[in-house]
Amino acid sequence: MSTPKEHEKLSDYISSQKLKQSHKRLTVLKAISASPKRHLTAHEVLALLNKKRSGIGQATVYRSLRLLCDAGVLNELRCEDGSSRYEFASAGSHHDHLICTKCGRFVEVFDPEIERLQDKLFARHGFYPERHKLELYGVCRMCKR
Amino acid sequence: MSTPKEHEKLSDYISSQKLKQSHKRLTVLKAISASPKRHLTAHEVLALLNKKRSGIGQATVYRSLRLLCDAGVLNELRCEDGSSRYEFASAGSHHDHLICTKCGRFVEVFDPEIERLQDKLFARHGFYPERHKLELYGVCRMCKR
DNA sequence: TCGATATTGATAATCATTATCATTTTAACG
DNA sequence: CGTTAAAATGATAATGATTATCAATATCGA
């Protein structure tokens, strides 16, 4: 599972901010790319890396995740339990989430009509819109039976 | 500022669960009712009580807030910074929130059309709907200028 | 009033995350 | 190539919101 686009985004950000390349940071990105599971927590990323005896500490995982967000490679999703999950910010693809309360599965959804109505709500109350967060909690098809 | 309805809800819950009335728990509820500020954090409630030398500890504040939620008197809003805010669950009034990113003001909003479209999203993905969370972040009228 | 049980306060523990700081890497420059 | 300043890292302490513990206190039905 290669991620040329993500690597490039990261490199661009690193040079734009006068940071330095680092093996370990790249290893974190690769581990996330290679995982079949999306929407990983920092703890889960750490577990992926430990399995490979990468010698990468948790501080570095947290730092890398933050930097990857700053670089626009990942999006951070603040969960209700107080932890965060990270997903790839595949260019310009805003979406919301359906979340199964039984198995924790995340499904990415998008409804342009909802987006439009949200903007109307902002306008109606004199708000300058910045962003929004829509999470739909329920039981997925698999968990229903 | 009286809250006969809230007191009653609380009493009903207390007897249904075979708990006991407590002076301090009522004081917490009254303090929240009396505050002009809505959407208070546990910390803010504690501050309200300390100002009055109530002798109520933080553990009791947290316990009371949780119980008031269980009793259906309050709703808990998990904020993105990891803390929670509490609002009155004035019977059957589901709503979402517009939140000012400058001053932190909360505005309660509701759009039946958005609700309907959310249900369609649940259905389209085979989810049994339980609840949702919609938060619109922007800059309010006051903070814009 | 008595006694079983709920409530409380002080404080320790938890959990995710961030800060600190000494050590190691990176990479621009000579 | 080495030097070297700055960034990255690991181990660990600190943070902040919240929950758990447990002995002391309050509640309330008999």
Can you tell me about this structure?
- Two copies of one chain form a homodimer.
- By secondary structure, chain A is α+β, with helices and mostly antiparallel strands.
- The first copy, chain A, has two domains: 4-88, Winged helix-like DNA-binding domain superfamily/Winged helix DNA-binding domain (Arc Repressor Mutant, subunit A); 96-144, Dna Ligase, domain 1, CATH 3.30.1490.
- Chain A contains six helices and six strands.
- The first copy, chain A, has a three-stranded antiparallel beta sheet with strand order 1-3-2. Chain A has a three-stranded mixed beta sheet with strand order 5-4-6.
- In chain A, α2 crosses α4 (58-70) and α3 crosses α4.
- Chain A is globular.
- The interface between A and B is medium-sized, with 34 and 34 residues.
- β6 (128-139) of chain A pairs antiparallel with β6 of chain B, so a sheet runs across the interface.
- Chain A binds a DNA duplex (30 and 30 nucleotides) through α2 and α4.
What is the topology?
The structure is a homodimer of 145-residue chains.
Chain A: H1 4-16, H2 23-34, E1 40-41, H3 42-51, H4 58-70, E2 74-78, E3 84-88, E4 96-100, E5 106-109, H5 112-124, E6 128-139, H6 141-144
Parallel strand pairs in A: 4-6
Antiparallel strand pairs in A: 1-3, 2-3, 4-5
Chain A binds a DNA duplex (30 and 30 nucleotides) through helix 2 and helix 4.
